[in-house]
Amino acid sequence: MDKLVTNAGQDMALIEKYARSGPRYTSYPTAPQFGESFPVDDYLRDARSHQLGSLSLYVHIPFCQDICYYCACNKIVTREPGTAQRYLASLRREIAMQAEIHGKRRPVRQMHWGGGSPTYLDNAEVTELMHDLASHFTLMDSGVREYSMELDPRTTAAGAIPLMKGLGFNRVSLGIQDFDPLVQKSINRVQPFKMVRKLVDEIRHFDFRSLSFDLIYGLPHQDSLTMESTLQKVIELRPDRIACFNYAHLPDRFKSQRAIDRLTLPSPSDKLALQWQIADTLQAAGYVHIGLDHYVLPDDDLAQAQRDGKLQRNFQGYSLLLADDLVGMGVSSISQVGDYYVQNARGLDDYYSDVDAGKLPIHRGYRTSSEDRLRRHVIMSLICNLSLDLDSCELPGDASFWQHFEQEIAALEDMQADGLLALENDRISITEQGRPFLRNVCMVFDQYLNPPESAANSPRYSAVI
């Protein structure tokens, strides 16, 4: 623990210097740049004209049985009978429309069901939804593919795990967050370790290719002792992948977070100490730190992809199997197709209204420019591989990297002086000390963060630390 205190103490000056809010960069440009004046007809024409390559599908199930106070996802908390069937009926119509636009014969290399909670659906409804997808898209039943689902241990039905394996899922992700009873009670997500261990044993029995845990640091009542206990339980269960997310307390945006007493939240310096503790403990247990708070076992596909410089990232997280196009289905889901990002209606009523009228529920979108794609390459390389090969950048004209990003270089040199990165003639590399500030480095290349966040019309992001 002395090492944690020392690290946190050494970085207090960096916390004060770099403490700000910023995007998590699951896309670039990020969702606040999407606009309602988006030319939907142009998008549909272009999408229909290049029905080639593989597909990635994302299916959003927005419902939860109970509210988790920390949650900032697009979700609807309800136990009203028939809710799922009403949603699945509309989702079935959207699936048919999306398949017609993007191509029914393109192999689906990657698929993810998220939420909300997909385990809101019962086994019959899960089967029904998978049947609808298989009826309209070309799902792969063998070979290298990633078909994953997020599971809530509290609502995973009996028989769900063998059913999922039989339906073709080969990866699962469990929302753990924290194992400490007081922390769980304070966020209204009580799931005893015994419950999770039983579920993990069943997942292992049916030989899924990968098991992931989602953890959150910065929750109420967390400290080094509770985190140590949680991490030891995680290590005992030995998931293949672990995502440790930084809790973003934004009660003005997310009403459920108002139930959390802000005085019980760790301070920024305490959160940094927790982040160091997580990194030290998991790496000592044999996990590889691959980027933005993600850890994997050394023989995991993602670790090998990073070693080969092939790790990729999109709205579904880190991957080595990104398809040519990502098609999101369901309320609020986002697609990335060609040069376009498009987002479905974020309200359930609007989603139902559009689909019932026989049109795709697209409400916002964005068409990327060549400059956007250049900066996206820079940001995603840093996030995925913790380095950027300058020769890989497709620069306009005869400009060099240093000329094109002349305004950004001063900020990078300042970060180099702080020990966050190393600037070389042909490469930018993130240092170990710079990992907690990786989002700060990426933000240097984000041309949409100006005017400053204090401007009245600028989006609100989560704190970096």
Which SSEs are present, and which pair or pack?
Elements: H1 2-10, H2 12-18, E1 21-22, H3 40-49, E2 55-61, E3 63-64, E4 76-77, H4 83-102, E5 107-115, H5 123-136, E6 138-139, E7 146-151, H6 160-167, E8 171-177, H7 181-186, H8 193-205, E9 210-217, H9 224-237, E10 241-246, H10 268-284, E11 288-291, E12 294-296, H11 301-307, E13 312-314, E14 317-319, E15 325-329, E16 334-337, E17 340-344, H12 348-356, E18 362-367, H13 370-385, E19 387-389, H14 401-404, H15 406-417, E20 421-423, E21 427-430, H16 438-444, E22 462-463
Parallel strand pairs: 2-5, 2-15, 3-4, 5-6, 5-7, 7-8, 8-9, 9-10
Antiparallel strand pairs: 1-22, 10-12, 11-12, 13-14, 16-17, 17-18, 19-21, 20-21
Helix pairs in contact: 1-10, 4-5, 4-12, 5-6, 9-10, 13-16
Radius of gyration: 22 Å
Mean residue pLDDT: 91
**CATH architecture field of the largest domain:** Alpha-Beta Horseshoe
Instruction: Please report the number of helical segments.
Output: 16
Tally of structural domains: 2
* N-end to C-end Cα span: 20 Å
CATH topology of the largest domain: pyruvate-formate lyase- activating enzyme
Q: Spans with pLDDT under 50 lasting ≥5 residues?
A: 1-9, 452-457
The fraction of residues assigned to DSSP E strands is: 15-25%
- Morphology: globular
CATH superfamily of the largest domain: tm_1862 like domain
Structural class determined from secondary elements:
alpha/beta
Which sheet architecture does the biggest sheet show? 10 strands, mixed
**Total strand segments:** 22
Helix content: 25-40%
CATH class of the largest domain: Alpha Beta
